[in-house]
Amino acid sequence: MEHKLTIALIFLAAFYLAGATSSTTINPSSSFIKSSCATATYPALCEQSLSPFAKTIQTSPAQLARTALAVSLKRSQSTQAYLNKLKKVNGLKPRERSAIGDCLEEVNDSLDRVSKSIKELKNCDGVKGQEFIWHMSNVQTWVSSALTDENTCMDGFGGKAMEGRVKSSVRSHITSVAHVTSNALALVNNFAQKH
């Protein structure tokens, strides 16, 4: 009986180690995302937000930049929807409602710029030299402007009178968008330099 238990334990240990070894095998796309995200402003967030798209990204810097912009666009759309709902909530102070409206305008501008950047990045496919530089310059300018819009959003919430749950909630959403947009800008810049 003791002999059978020993064999079973050895078998289980071998099975466990084999499983652990195969799960630690480094996937080239995951490794590529991790090393690329190391240069981003928020590396952990970059890796976490882009890893689900590893099969699409593979080891393509262009696809990595596109995906990072798509993540930024998705977060911007989510924040836009949130602000639209928040603006209609009863009990808001007039200044809060006004600040939310101003913030929503900034997020709308940001969304527009990120959308343009995604389309413009597609124009970089198959072009070289000055044409590539021109398209990439547009992408970089629009993503940078989108980031400025997102950061400007919180300006209307300045002062002690605006402290509270509304400001905290808006800041949380805007920070999330700004961080993924900042990461997208870093990855776009890396792609531009490596091309």
From TrEMBL:
Sorted UniProt keywords: Signal
Keyword Signal appears in the UniProt entry: yes
Example of a GO MF term: pectinesterase inhibitor activity
Source domain of life: Eukaryota
UniProt keyword Signal present: yes
InterPro entries: Invertase/methylesterase_inhib, Pectinesterase_inhib_dom, PME_Inhibitor
Gene3D superfamilies in the cross-refs: Invertase/pectin methylesterase inhibitor family protein
NCBIfam families: PME_inhib (TIGR01614)
Cleavable signal peptide: 1-20
Stretches assigned to the Pectinesterase inhibitor domain: 28-187
Protein name: Pectinesterase inhibitor domain-containing protein
A Pfam family assignment: PMEI
